[in-house]
Amino acid sequence: MTGRPVVLITGGSRGIGAAVARKAASQGWDVLVNYVAQEEAARSLATELHATGARTEIIKGDTGSEEGIAAIFAALDQHFGRLDALVNNAGVVDHAERVEDFSRARLDRMFAINVIGKIRCAAEAVRRMSTAHGGQGGSIVNISSMAAVLGSPGQYVDYAASKGAIDTFTVGLSKEVAAEGIRVNAVRPGIIDTDIHASGGIPDRAIAMASAIPMRRPGLAGEVADAVLYLMSSQASYVTGALLNVSGGR
Q1: Which pLDDT value is given to residue 195?
Q2: Among 26, 138, 163, 186, which one is least packed by beta carbons within 10 Å?
Q3: Neighbours of 97 (CB within 10 A)
Q4: Dist. CA 53–CA 4, nearest whole Å
C-alpha cells in the first residue's frame, strides 16, 4: 500500500478514460484501469502510468455483467484495499438508427452497460467508501453526455436516453449519500474527438459537427479529464449533485 489515493476508472484503456488515468497519475493518484477488449491498450497505458510513479493495475471485466463487476471490485480489494474515487466511464454507443429500427438486443446491451452497469459499480463503490459502512468517504464521477440534453435524434436516441437516466441517478445518489462522506457528480461531454464515433459508424463525426459547436471545434479527451479531476479533488469539496457540461457551449 502506498498511502496515495486510489481511483478506479471503468472503460479506462482509451479515450476519455485513459485521459483521466493520465491526469490522475500526474496528480498523485494510484489507478485501477478496467477494460473489456482492449488489453494491449490497457497494458500500454499501465506502463506509461508506472513511469510517472503511479501504482497501476489493469483488470478485464464487462460492467454490463454481474461477473464482470465482481471481478473488477475483487481486483480493487486485492491490489489496493481502498477506494477514494470511482470514475464511472464505461459505456457504449451503437450505429446510427432511427427509433423504429432499434432491436431489443441493441437496447438491452445499451442499458445493461450505460445504466445498470454504472448503477451497480456505484453501489459497490458506496459499500467501500460510505462512512455508514466504515469507509472514509470519497467521490463518484459519472460520465454522462450532452446527448442527455440534446436527444440525438436520427442517430442515437437510445444512447441519449441512457445518459438521461445517469443524470437523474447522479442527482438521486448524491442526496442519498451526501451525509456519508461521498460526493456524486457527473460530467456531460459534448462532441469530443475520440474513437467512440468510429464505433458508432461515423468516424469523422467530431470534425463534421464542429460548425454546430459555438467554439467551432470538437473537444479533447484531456479537457474532459480536467473536469473529472476537479470533481475528484478537494477543490470540489462542497460540490455534489452537479452536472458539469464540457461541451464548447453546445
Answers
A1: 61
A2: 26
A3: 16
A4: 11
Closest to 112 in 3D by CA, of 68, 142, 51, 77: 68
Distance CA 125, CA 111 (A): 20
**Whole-number average pLDDT of the chain:** 93
Rounded to a whole number of angstroms, the CA Rg of the chain reads 17
CATH superfamily of 6-246: NAD(P)-binding Rossmann-like Domain (3.40.50.720)
Is the Cβ–Cβ distance between 142 and 170 less than 8 Å? yes
> For residue 209, is pLDDT > 80?
no
In which band, very low, low, confident or very high, does the pLDDT at 197 lie, cut at 50, 70 and 90? very low
Catalytic one of 35, 156, 159, 230: 159
Angle, helices 221-232 vs 15-26, to 10°: value is 50
Asked if 159 is an active-site residue, the reply is yes
Q: What single-letter amino acid sits at 13? A: S
- pTM summary value: 0.93
Rounded to whole angstroms, the Cα distance separating 233 from 183 reads 10
Helix (H) or strand (E) holding 82: none
